[in-house]
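Hi L.,

As promised, Metal-binding protein:
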Amino acid sequence: MKTVITVCDTCKKENWDPEQNLPRDGEILAQMVETAANKLDTIEVRRQSCLMGCERACNIAIQSQGKLQYVLGCFDADKDDAQGIIDYALLYNASETGQVPYKTWPQAIKGHFVARLPILPKLDSDQ
């Protein structure tokens, strides 16, 4: 089963200036996460315009069918954060429920969790 990382590509850090700093911070982070995930069969990266977490830019979501889902924010658009996101996603992917023991979390994602969403129940229409 694949783990999907959704990266908000419209996120802008507080000091972002359209006259000076194109592209947006979210676009930069998305590109870095895509590059870090290149050739990983278990990770899919997609972009989404606005995850509605503007106060915590840059934002991502980590999801997989039948697992807890997470929203994370306040990332810098840099290679260390991008690699930390991928490293966590690989641990998440290996977990049956989506829970990853704290002691195994990459340093780059500690302090970035915004929300944990429960596993969606099977709907009658899904059967």
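The helical segments are 25-37, 79-94.

Thanks again for sending the construct details.

K.
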